[in-house]
Amino acid sequence: GAAVPDTEAAAIQSNRALVLLKAGHHMDAADAAAKALERDPRNSKAAFRRAKGLLGHLSSPSAAGGPAAADAKEWAAEALRAAKLAASLEPKDASVAEVLRQAQAAFDDAEAAERAAAVESTPAGGADGAVEADGQVLDEMD
Question: Dihedral sign, CA of 29, 34, 36, 40?
């Protein structure tokens, strides 16, 4: 059979992403949209749907408390890249502008969570010594 032209293959994958989004399969939708963008990097709908899928995954109950801060930041960064691409292709679309705002907020939140996790993993005694359970610093350096 004849090969499907890139723009048609991209439209098929983008439409698949739409159906998956509506069904609540956020990561599958994001993956389908990514395949569409591989075939047609200027497909604004695919970029929009990739951002929506990643944002939906970040806010889904299965992801709540689940993804490590680094994973959440990576997904949020990818959502932000996709939203920025969609906004560059459809600068007057209000829905795209809203997803861009949401993606920026998700990225900012993920960065803050990553920083908070880094602070929490630092021993209370800091670099100067180990801390016992009662909070006393051992081996204090002068």
Answer: positive
* Helices 6-22 & 44-59 angle (0-180, nearest 10): 30
Residues 16-47 have pLDDT tens digits of 999 999 999 999 999 999 999 999 999 999 99
84-99: b (≥16 Cβ within 10 Å) or e: bbbbebbeeeeebeeb
Question: Which two tokens mark 83?
Answer: 């939203």
- Taking only the tens place, the pLDDT of each residue in 76-98 is 999 999 999 999 999 999 999 99
- Tokens representing residue 54 in the block: 């990643």
